[in-house]
Amino acid sequence: MTSSGKQRPPIWPPLIATSLLLFVWLGYWYQDTFSSIVNLWETSDTYAHGYVVLPIALWLIWSERKELSSHSPQPGYLLTFLALPLVFVWLLGEVAAVNAVTQPALGLLVIISIVAMIGVPLAKKLAFPLVFLLFAIPFGEFMMPKLMDWTADFTVLALRLSGIPVYREGLQFVIPSGNWSVVEACSGIRYIIASLMVGTLFAYLNFTSTKRRLIFMLAALLVPIIANWLRAYLIVMLGHISGNKLAAGVDHLIYGWVFFGIVIGALFAVSMRWAQVRPSTTEADITYSPVPRAQQISALTKTTILLALFVAIGPVTYRQITGDADTAPTRTLQFPSSEFPDLATREFEFKPAWQNPSAEGLVQVKAEEAVIGIYIARYGNQSPQRKLISSTNMLATYQDPHWRITAQSLGSITMGNESLSVQVADLIQQADANPLRLKVVYWYFIGDDATASPVKGKLLTARNQLLGQGDQGAVVVLYTPADANALERLSRFAKVNAENIKKMATASGSQ
Q1: Which residues are bridge partners to 423 per DSSP?
Q2: Same structural domain for residues 123 and 258?
Q3: Which candidate, 278, 286, 406, 504, has a CA 20 to 30 Å from the CA of 437?
Q4: Could you tell me if 20 and 164 lie in one domain?
Q5: 301 Cβ neighbours under 8 A, 6+ residues apart
Q6: Rounded CA gap, 167 and 178, in Å?
Q7: Distances from the Cα of 38 to the Cαs of 136, 191, 389, in angstroms?
């Protein structure tokens, strides 16, 4: 049965107006999370594609406007309850200061809100544009270290198979014509994300079979990974053959993007051989489901009110259990000579790259005829700009001109009378001759709990916040010149000084 005259359902104007107001409401309560997403679009080339995701999704919806305008939205207020678990996940991520949790939770919350406002039948027709919106959420950064390792592994293997001798140490390697490093840009993460997004759109527009779409999306994921390995190998070979006159500096990036463009273009061109024509919608295909206007308005009102209440629960709760973010300048921690009596003159310059702590201190002490460095950084009232556990906090950044990490793994030391799991790393000084090597251990204090696991640290932070115990935390870094006894020396130092180290890391207030 069809409606008389097949006119556009009258619910659309109030639905559009109400939805716009609801998204303004969402923007108000989640402005910090939205801002963190846009900030990554602006500051990271890896996520610059985020700017075009919404326009593409809107274009896809607009292209279906004829069919969509002939259907009555069916707001479903029961669907609004699906927002509650997402709001709770967002709250957990916010109290633990984990953007990798808050940003996807917010993205899914937006999609669920749209589904609740328009109803399931229309949402099915808009499934792809709605899911495509998730590409606006920055993701994939966690893969970068592993992708860099894979790139280094393939490049070194390919060079050796090419007859070129290679000495490798971590992500750095030396060949007869010069030194090379696998840095963040070499991970290929930006190629992979861009290829997956464009490949997903290509598959949707050019295939109708679910099987073909999934196969092409898998190819769009795997091809840039392999292409990036070949790109890195070819760039090193170009540099080697040309005496480092080619594929250096800006040329390095230009050649990389040109090669990537050729590979992805070839993938699309080959795939067009299996392209399928999407069936066009005719009047016979369009179904009309008229619902009384009063019933539609009632459902729309209930849905809007419930969504408005539910989405505000998370931010309101967060403001109740946390204080204002700490924006004061970083304070300097003073190591009392009564507790650390063997303070030594700084024999070498090394400072871990923990960003914007509430307070930090760095000293070197004499122990067992060697120097041991102690670095402690405290964080409190954390925020996206000031948080203890973050992908940007590390012993040495990839761009550090003075130090680089050559190995990192889990280990253990003795802290007081207990064994403590720690992160163990080897660092080497970026020097031309006789570079200094360091053995480093570090771990976190979340309140009074010690852990080496970033994930556990985030969970402990969230627990403490929800229990009203605050989000105070600290990182402790111990380091010493690397030799056969370095790790044991650090362990003995931690055992003897356990109480003083914990006191410095967990004490409240400034020193």
Answers
A1: 410, 442
A2: no
A3: 504
A4: no
A5: none
A6: 11
A7: 9, 20, 21
User: At what angle are helices 99-118 and 83-95 packed, to 10 degrees?
Assistant: 160
Structure tokens at 158: 């390919």
Name which of 232, 64, 61 is nearest 157 in CA terms. 232
Per the domain annotation, does 478 fall within a domain? yes
For residue 452, give the DSSP letter.
Answer: S
Tens of pLDDT, residue by residue, the chain (511 residues): 444 444 445 577 888 899 999 999 999 999 999 999 999 898 888 898 899 999 999 999 888 877 777 677 889 889 999 999 999 999 988 888 888 899 999 999 999 999 999 999 889 889 999 999 999 999 887 788 889 899 999 999 999 999 999 988 888 888 988 888 887 777 888 888 988 999 999 999 898 888 888 999 999 989 889 988 988 898 888 888 877 666 555 455 556 667 777 877 888 888 888 877 666 655 555 555 566 777 888 889 999 999 999 999 999 998 888 777 777 888 988 887 777 766 666 677 899 999 999 999 999 988 888 899 999 999 988 887 888 998 889 999 877 888 988 888 999 998 878 899 999 999 998 766 678 899 999 999 999 899 999 989 999 998 888 888 888 999 999 999 999 899 999 999 999 899 989 999 987 544 4
Q: Do 359 and 502 share a domain, yes or no?
A: yes
Same domain, residue pair 32 and 146: no
What's the gap between Cα 220 and its chain centre?
21
Distance of alpha carbon 274 from alpha carbon 254, whole angstroms: 31
Q: What is the DSSP letter of 383?
A: B
Rounded-to-integer distance, Cα 508 and Cα 131, Å: 45
Task: Examine the domain organization and report whether 266 and 179 are in the same domain.
Answer: yes
- Tokens linked to 115: 């589904």
Domain that includes residue 55, residue range: 9-133+293-321
Residues 313 and 419 in one domain: no
CA-based nearest residue to 192, from 249, 151, 235: 151
Tokens representing residue 487 in the block: 């790790």
Q: Which residue has the tokens 């976190």?
A: 444
Question: Which residues make Cβ contacts (< 8 Å) with residue 276, sequence separation at least 6?
Answer: 206, 207, 208, 209, 212
And the tokens for 28?
A: 């108000």
Token representation of residue 367: 């122990």
| Cβ partners under 8 Å of residue 103, min gap 6 | 33, 36, 37, 137, 138
Residues 351/403, Cβ–Cβ less than 8 Å? no
Strand ranges in 136-182 using DSSP code E only, listed in sequence order: 167-169, 172-175, 178-181
Q: Check: CB of residue 95 under 8 Å from CB of residue 318.
A: yes
- What single letter denotes the amino acid at residue 189? I
Task: Report residue 278 as tokens.
Answer: 């999407």
The enclosing H or E element of 404 equals strand 403-415
Task: Confirm whether 286 is domain-assigned.
Answer: no
The residues pairing with 279 across neighbouring beta strands, listed in sequence order, are none
The Cα 399–Cα 430 span in angstroms is 11
